Fold this protein.
Amino acid sequence: MSTDHSQYFRTPKPRPIRPPKLHHATFMTLDVDAMVAWYELVAGLQPVYYSTQAAWLTNDEANHRIALLALPGTKPPVDKPHSAGLHHTAFEYDNFDEWLDNYERLRDAGIRPEICLDHGMTMSMYYADPDGNGVEIQVDMFGDWKLSKEWMWASQEFAADQIGPQFDPDKLAAARADGLSAEEIHERTRRSEYLPDQPRPTVTFDDPWPARIAADPAIADGVPEPTK
């Protein structure tokens, strides 16, 4: 890999006069129904349009935030956790209590995060959807994007460690029930006081596809072409 820096390394980065905002992400899938059900439960995304081979979902005023396509010829991924591409999408709560309440709601529905990390500017729980795509549910611990952005680029703490300590969300829920504030819990999490009993060795997600294909070998054939 070349070690040459890009032309923007130490020069002002050109910007559009009015930069566009990120609007949505689109996923290829083999099972639209399972993905629609999961995203509605986890992130409140409801379908605006829904068919057997496609769905467009939103949880705000936009016409869609997630699109799901089961196009003919779509095949299961190979070695998904170690393939180049999108690692995860992310959704943010406005405050710590709503964020932790959501964890408890999903936990009681049998959905648990794969890994939980305190990045410093955010506390984040990472889930995996039915296709093995990562979904981060986060809360900004500064409560102000300007402040959290400044902390990211200015702090030696983030420069030294962009991942941060892992945490057990049940321990956070117990600390809140004991009367600790969000700020106190965040500080203790940064000091690694709420580590899981068995920390996850990597930030990659498990690959669901080998087990799915073993259970139903026809999945390996992908989405069939339409019959004429």
In short: The beta strands are 25-28, 46-50, 54-58, 66-69, 88-93, 115-118, 122-128, 134-140. The first strand starts at residue 25 and ends at 28.
